[in-house]
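Re: duplicated header lines in exported structure tokens

Our pipeline writes sequence and tokens for each protein into one text file. With two proteins the header for the second block appears twice in some exports. Here is an export where it did not happen, for reference. First protein block:
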Amino acid sequence: MAVLRLDLPTLRSGHNRADEVVPPDALDLPKGDWPVPLDVELDADRLGDQVTVAVRVRTESQEECARCLKEFRAPLDFGLTLYADRAGTGGRHEKELAESDDVVFHDGRHIDLAEPVREATLLARPFAPLCRPECQGLCPRCGADRNEGPCPHAAEARA
């Protein structure tokens, strides 16, 4: 069975819900950066060939604090909404729609959500991760971790 793939013949008209636990390597995410599986909730509303899919992902990423350089796990909880339609039904605007990050096309048999979820997962990582908001970081002179107590240069930094 393919990961994060909605089989349209089994998807009934109206609201559908599915939950999946996805290993990071199934989405080509490095195991070292993604230490736990992704909990993925899918809510799909189908009307004929058109399907709106709301995706909610909960996981953790392995990060290095931007201030003190300590390793920590950052919890991630994010969502995305995708609109799917059958390929060939978008008329003259289909090419423009295909360039949108929110629109995917299907062949009438299944909708593959793996790539959009993978991209959203990578984009959900913090740009400058902090082990905690009040992290004081390292002393620029001696490299001491200011979270563990003052260094000899702490008085100079206040002056």
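Second protein block, exported in the same file:
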Amino acid sequence: MEREIRKLLTTCVLIICGVSLNAQLSEHGLNFNGGSGWVNVKTDTYSERDKGFGYKAGASVGYRLRFKELVPKYFHYDIDVNIGSKLLHPALKPGEYGKTKADHDFFTSICGTANYSIMKNLSIGLGVEPTYYYKKEVFRVHYRERNSHFDIPLIAKVAYKFKAVEVSIYGKNGLINVLGSKSYQHFNYKYRDIQMSLFIPLKTK
């Protein structure tokens, strides 16, 4: 499974690099992301938000490269390299079995989006964010070896550009079971995110 995920991840990176080589760098700068979300769990019999642990907050910092092509005129392409963490905690009361303290799921990602300007300073975009999670184990009630370190969430965003910064709202939908364990293959846990992003250009062409 991980071999196929690695191949898909490599393909996404090559596509993003291909866009970069065929476009013109117009802006680059710091990018800050923060927000909340939940963990979606699926089995053979039901689908609901997970009751075993929660994902309450996440944050990342990165660097953005923005490219523009001469044609089509109203499109631009963003590539973000990020590092960050998601805050997890088990839904257990003190004294119950299992761990009760919060845990962090650290990650690094490369996010690529294609963006269309629907009016001055306002744009919408779609993309993917190949992501690698570093921790070997994550918890539900007890620590378990995770099913996969890789995810490739789909992204939809709306952005508005002010004079000095650009503010975006992201929705992210994870596609891969990164929180399920190898010993419990019938549980499929995926991240869902709602985030705000602040892009601060350091140089504009």
